[in-house]
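Per your request, structure below.
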C-alpha cells in the first residue's frame, strides 16, 4: 500500500468517528436542553412523519403529553376541545395548533391571557420548530416534531 493510500485511509477512518461523535453530541444536547425522561424520549422518537408532541414543562399537569396529529388541534378550558387545560388562566378556546404537511404553527384564538411562543406573544400565526416553548395560560409546553421531519433526517 502506498503512502498516499495510507494517508487517505487514515483520513477516512477519522471522518467516520467525527461524524458519529457530532450526531451523538447533538442528541445529548437536545435531550439535556429539554430534560426529557426516557419515556418521553421514546415517545418523541416514535412519532410518525407529520405528527408532533407537546410536553407540559410547567403547570398543573407537569409531564403530560399531547399528540398533534390533526390539521387543527384546539387547546382550552372547554370540555369539548382537543387539549383540555383545566385552569382559570386558560380561556375556553385559547389556542389552535395547525398542521400543514409536516410543518406546525400556533395561533391565539382571542384569549384573555394570550399565547406565547419562544417568549413572544402570538398575535397571528407563529411557526413552531423542534424544542420551542409554547405557553397557554400558566401551562408551558415544549414542542417536539417527528424525528423524521427534522432537517437532515431524510
Amino acid at each position: 500500500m502506498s503512502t498516499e493510500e495510507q494517508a487517505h485511509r487514515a483520513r477516512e477512518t477519522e471522518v467516520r468517528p467525527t461524524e458519529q461523535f457530532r450526531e451523538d453530541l447533538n442528541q445529548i444536547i437536545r435531550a439535556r436542553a429539554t430534560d426529557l425522561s426516557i419515556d418521553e424520549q421514546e415517545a418523541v422518537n416514535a412519532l410518525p412523519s407529520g405528527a408532533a408532541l407537546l410536553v407540559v414543562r410547567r403547570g398543573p399537569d407537569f409531564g403530560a403529553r399531547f399528540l398533534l396529529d390533526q390539521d387543527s388541534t384546539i387547546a382550552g378550558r372547554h370540555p369539548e376541545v382537543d387539549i383540555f387545560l383545566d385552569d382559570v388562566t386558560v380561556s375556553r378556546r385559547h389556542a389552535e395548533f395547525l398542521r400543514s404537511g409536516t410543518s406546525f404553527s400556533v395561533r391565539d384564538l382571542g384569549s384573555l391571557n394570550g399565547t406565547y411562543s419562544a417568549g413572544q406573544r402570538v398575535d397571528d400565526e407563529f411557526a413552531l420548530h423542534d424544542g420551542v416553548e409554547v405557553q397557554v395560560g400558566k401551562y408551558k409546553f415544549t414542542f417536539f416534531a417527528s424525528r423524521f421531519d427534522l432537517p437532515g433526517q431524510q
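The CA atoms of residues 49 and 148 lie 5 Å apart.

Regards,
D.
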